[in-house]
Design a protein that fits this description.
Elements: E1 9-11, H1 21-24, H2 27-39, H3 44-51, E2 61-67, E3 73-76, E4 80-83, E5 89-90, H4 100-110, H5 119-122, E6 126-128, E7 134-144, E8 147-160, E9 186-190, H6 196-209, E10 221-225, E11 246-250, H7 254-265, E12 269-272, H8 278-288, E13 293-299, H9 303-307, H10 313-317, E14 323-328, E15 335-341
Parallel strand pairs: 9-13, 9-14, 10-11, 10-12, 12-13
Antiparallel strand pairs: 1-15, 2-3, 2-8, 3-4, 4-5, 6-7, 7-8, 14-15
Helix pairs in contact: 2-3, 7-8
Length: about 350
């Protein structure tokens, strides 16, 4: 089935997510504290380096990359920085070379000495730390009956630092509301590291609290936080502020959780990150029959690319989504390239 969309940009403000004021004004002392807090997940060598980093403000960092036998790397929005044993920025040739023992020690700390208990996450290639920080993991896959069971001989870790950036969703929320105040079924898409999870988190909070200035009443939001990134739940308490009227189902597969949260919490809006499996789509279509509104994200850099994904194409072809928000890194993470009307094709 071929599908031809005539899209009109509702408005496409060039918005870039920025560091919240309280962090950007925190100064070097606060940066040192934040580095030390991150260092607790690593063994002595890596921990010492992170505690001594002075040249890289914590607020600029997006990822910590550890690959066995390769230089320890800190990644910002526009630079790859190689770190030496004293915590200084240097050339790749002079940087600290990551050892397998560094990865083993980090995994022990990140799984609280129970790597076995984390196998369900490891087979998906990631771990989620308290606070929503996500750790990508690669290594040798253990296969049973054609399915990945776990990873062994881990070869690399990628710790992606999660941040709560409030207020940016206010730029586009008026474009996601109908004249009658109803929230539009909305899909946020972007390539990796372009800020869609951060924007999703802010939109959840805004919808939950409401915005009197635009006559948006606060609505009950059910969040399916399968990977623990949106709320950053820790022992039942969220790290991030998702609003007054938000209920979080943490660590539950989206396909199973949608029906559960509809029955138990009666949300007006269901929000989820990284829609991508056929089972998720089936559950989403079933949830729509209950009258809930949908807010979710997916990996794609454009509508054309989204239509090539087998799981997204049926939803787009059936006209499930009313709004499409496209993000990129053109002006930094969180740049909003456009907000599109998928129903009428009209400029609003």
């Amino acid at each position: 089935m071929s599908l031809h969309y005539t899209l009109s940009v509702i408005r496409a403000p060039k918005v870039t997510l920025t560091i919240p004021a309280e962090e950007s004004l925190s100064g070097p002392d606060q940066s040192t504290v934040l580095w030390a807090d991150m260092a607790r997940w690593f063994g002595e060598e890596i921990r010492s380096m992170l505690e001594n980093i002075k040249a890289v403000p914590y607020r600029e960092v997006e990822e910590l990359r550890l690959r066995v036998g390769q230089p320890f790397m800190v990644r910002t929005s526009d630079r790859d920085l190689f770190i030496n044993q004293e915590g200084g920025v240097t050339s790749p040739e002079k940087a600290y070379l990551v050892r397998r023992e560094d990865l083993i020690c980090a995994l022990e700390r990140m799984t609280q000495s129970s790597v076995y208990a984390a196998e369900e996450d490891l087979k998906q290639g990631y771990l989620t730390l308290p606070g929503g920080n996500r750790v990508g993991v690669t290594g040798e896959a253990v296969i049973l009956r054609g399915q990945i069971q776990t990873l062994k001989h881990v070869s690399a870790l990628n710790l992606r630092i999660a941040r709560e950036i409030q207020g940016q969703g206010l730029n586009i929320i008026p474009l996601l509301i109908r004249a009658d105040g109803m929230f539009c079924h909305t899909l946020l898409i972007s390539p990796p590291r372009a800020g869609k999870t951060t924007l999703l988190r802010d939109l959840i909070r805004i919808i939950s609290n409401g915005v009197p200035k635009i006559r948006l009443k606060g609505q009950t939001v059910g969040v399916l936080d399968e990977r623990g990134e949106l709320a950053g739940m820790w022992q039942g308490e969220p790290t991030y502020n998702l609003g007054y009227r938000t209920d979080v189902l943490d660590g539950c597969p989206k396909a199973s959780g949608m029906n559960m949260i509809v029955r138990s919490m009666a949300p007006q809006v269901i929000a989820m990150d990284e829609l991508g499996h056929a089972d998720d789509v089936t559950a989403l279509l079933d949830a729509l029959r209950t009258g809930v509104r949908i807010l979710c994200t997916a990996h794609a850099s454009s509508l054309e690319e989204a239509l090539l994904r087998p799981t997204l194409a049926p939803l787009l072809e059936q006209g499930v989504f009313e709004r499409l928000v496209v993000l990129s890194r053109k002006q930094g993470p969180g740049t909003i390239d456009g907000v599109y009307d998928l129903k009428t094709g009209r400029i609003l």
